[in-house]
Design goal:
single chain; alpha/beta; Rossmann fold; four-stranded parallel beta sheet
Length: about 260
Amino acid sequence: MDLEDRPIGFFDSGIGGISVLKEAIKILSNEDFVYFGDSKMAPYGGKTAEEVKRLTFNAVDLLLKKNIKALVVACNTATSAAIIDLRKKYSKSMPIIGIEPALKPAVEFNRKGKIVIMATTMTLSERKFNNLMKKYESTTSIEPVPCPGLVELIEQGKTEGEEVEIYLKEKLNSLKDEGIAAVVLGCTHYPFVKKSIRKILNKDIPIIDGSRGTVEQLKRQLVRYHIRNNKNKAGKVTIFNSMDSQFIIQLSYKLLKKESV
C-alpha cells in the first residue's frame, strides 16, 4: 500500500474524539480513518500525567499496527500529558497532531464578560494549559471550570436530558449571572452536550471547541509530509474501542452521524 493511501489514526480516552473526527471527515472526505477510543480506562482527566502518558503510548502502539500514516491525539488531556514525548519519538516518520482549548478564537470575539473554559481537572492543571492562559489573562477575564463526572455521563450516551442539564446548571448558572463572553469546550467529549449548554445560556454566547483548528493543522501536515490521499471517492471510517461492548461501538457511530448544533 502506498503511504498516501494509508489511514489516519485518531485516538481519544473514549468517544469524545469522535467530535474531532466528524470535522476531519468534512474537510478531508477522501481520507480513510481509524479511530481508537480507550473507554475502558476513561476518564483520563482524574489520572496522573504519567498514567495518561503510558495509556496514550499504548493506544498509539495499537494504531501503528493499523498501518497509519498520521496520528491525531483527539483528547485534550492526552495532548497535555504526552504530545511532546510522542513527537520526540514519532515525528520523523509521521505527523503528530494534538488538540488544545480554543482560547484564542474565544478572545478574538472581543465580547464583554468572562471566558469560561470547561475541561477536565488534569487539562486545567497541566503546564501546557497554564502557559496558554498566561498569554491572555492580562487582557481577558478567564474562568477555568473543571468538570469531573461529565465525561462519564457522555460515555454512557447521556448528552441531553435532566441529568445532564442539572450537572451543567450547577457549573454555569452562577457564572451566567456574572456575565459570560464565550464558553470554550476544553475536552473533546463536551461538544456532544453543546445543545444542553445552549439551553442554559443566552443564545448569543459563542460556544467554541478546538476541532476545526486541529483538523486544519492535520491538513497542513499531510501536505508538508506529501501524504495527502488524492483518490476521487469518499474514505472509510473504522472504529475500535478498548471496551468489549457493542453499545460503545454503536454509540460511536451514532455520534459520528449526529447533527452538530
